[in-house]
Design goal:
Rossmann fold, Hect, E3 ligase catalytic domain fold, five-stranded mixed β-sheet, 17 strands
Length: 500
């Protein structure tokens, strides 16, 4: 047993490969050390990517358990700071090994079990001090990286790390995943897709988890909530605009936040039968939300054998006297109610003034974004030209040339996509202003001409609840947006549509 040993090695990060602390280097050094001294390696325990500040490491815990089940004569480590950087933990393990007659041998520092524990503890103290100094240096470097306009943490999906090593790395949009992430935001912003549907949509584009399954619901939620995508970085409670290229606009991000906030009420569910007023009309008798359904009977010959009704779900079951209301009749009453809403001229004038400023700001913003794209494209074209000149001068390998040339071309395509997006957004902004002005000037007509899904948005904008009694609208409860406008007469309600 004395010649049998366990080998424990650890690497905290992949970057340590450059410092000679890689897994392979440690394995090779420990094997050569044991072979030279006639030790038989019974088992090797490898800790990959774990912190050494505590003993709560899987491979270490597994080795300690193995020592109980199958004792050996010694533990071989590469270096003390690979084993522990905490003096207290090191001393505890050191004394535990010594009590059991197990030697602790370091390839770099020799047999630590010979003599007193003073020298090993000094080594452990130095290792702890180095760990604390390195940690502070890392924190300082990450903060400096943030001050320079780069996110200190690894970029999210849709970006890839580029440039120097460790804290000096920057990022850029990934040529494949960035367009998919942008489209993800665009789809969700419409309100027509649930996060569960987007899971499958991403899987079809090979955006999956490490195990190959669709990425989780919470992961997609994290993506949609990540301000990094429109250019914002944050670190330790501070935030600012970063230097990385945004994948989406802030307006698109804000729209997705609205959809997320209104997730249950905002989205249109995929139902077999869609009814315009479902969720809005309530029973004035008992307060229950009305439901709707089709009735199929041969006697409805003029209606192709079917007719649809809204009704209280407690009708005829729990004593609620509310009668059925034909879908067309109730929707006509609601339309009349919408027509009875109009904005005051002062409010319309304020909206027009706001619209003018919005258009001006949109043009300035588009101009600035467009110029940024032009500058980025010019810089990439310059890099591409230099690369092509290097190929002609035979100063670059063709394989390297192709890889770098493809990367530059992919970045140029992303910028071109962004340019087209800016141009399209300017047209969308003007159309949005036009729609808003039409809406404020003639609410009833705008509502009447809108498709059903947009009518539901209009209803949600105006009405919290529409109370129905005896097939009539008995009361309207306005949303927190509209109620104050009604109170200060910015919104005028024509009471002719409601009973006095």
């Amino acid at each position: 047993m004395k010649d049998e040993v366990y080998v424990y090695i650890r690497v905290s990060t992949s970057e340590q490969a450059d410092e000679g602390f890689s897994i392979d280097n440690q394995k090779r050094a420990c094997k050569e050390f044991c072979e030279a001294r006639g030790y038989h390696i019974k088992r090797m325990f490898v800790e990959d990517g774990r912190s050494a500040r505590t003993t709560e490491r899987p491979a270490l815990q597994e080795m300690l358990k193995a020592l109980v089940d199958t004792p050996v004569g010694a533990i071989v480590i590469y270096k003390i700071d690979r084993f522990a950087r905490n003096v207290t933990d090191f001393s505890r393990l050191y004394n535990e090994f010594k009590t059991k007659g197990i030697q602790l041998i370091s390839v770099s520092e020799g047999n630590l079990s010979e003599g007193t524990s003073l020298v090993p503890n000094i080594f452990a103290s130095v290792a702890q001090w180095e760990s604390e100094v390195n940690s502070q240096r890392t924190r300082d470097a990450l903060m400096q990286k943030f001050r320079e306009g780069w996110q200190p943490t690894p970029p999210p999906i849709g970006y890839r790390s580029v440039g120097a090593d460790r804290e000096r790395k920057t990022c850029e949009p990934d040529p494949y995943t960035a367009p998919i992430i942008r489209e993800l935001f665009e789809l969700y912003s419409t309100g027509n897709y649930s996060i569960y549907e987007l899971q499958n949509w991403l899987a079809e584009r090979d955006i999956v988890s490490k195990t190959g399954t669709p990425i989780g619901h919470s992961v997609i939620g994290t993506i949609l909530n990540n301000r990094f995508y429109y250019g914002w970085i944050s670190w330790h409670g501070e935030g600012k605009t970063g230097k990385h290229m945004p994948i989406i606009s802030k307006d698109l991000f804000d729209t997705c936040q609205y959809v997320l906030a209104k997730h249950r009420n905002f989205l249109t569910r995929n139902r077999i039968h869609q009814f315009l007023l479902r969720g809005f009309v309530h029973c004035a008798e008992c307060g229950q939300r009305y439901t709707a359904e089709w009735h199929f009977k041969p006697r409805f010959t003029k209606r192709n054998g079917k007719i649809a009704y809204y009704h209280c779900p407690k009708m005829n079951r729990n004593g609620c006297p509310a009668p059925y209301v034909e879908v067309g009749d109730l929707e006509k009453l609601v339309f009349d109610t919408v027509k009875g809403v109009q904005f005051s001229q002062d409010f319309i004038d304020a909206v027009v003034d706001k619209a003018r400023r919005f258009v001006d700001d949109s043009r300035k913003r588009a101009g600035g974004d467009m110029q940024a794209c032009i500058n980025q494209r010019t810089a990439l074209e310059f890099k591409r030209n230099k690369l092509e000149d290097a190929l002609l001068d035979n100063t670059i390998d063709r394989t390297v040339f192709k890889r770098k040339h493809d990367e530059i071309e992919a970045q140029i395509r992303l910028i071109d996509d962004r340019t087209r997006e800016i141009e399209a957004q300017s047209h969308v902004d003007i159309k949005l202003v036009e729609d808003v002005l039409n809406f404020t000037r003639d609410v009833g007509r705008t509502y009447d001409e809108a498709p059903d899904f947009l009518k539901r948005h209009f209803l949600r904008f105006f009405f919290e609840k529409i109370m129905v009694k005896d097939k009539k609208i008995a009361e309207v409860i306005y949303t927190p947006i509209i109620a104050p406008l009604v109170a200060n007469h910015s919104v005028i309600i024509k009471n002719l549509m409601l009973p006095r």
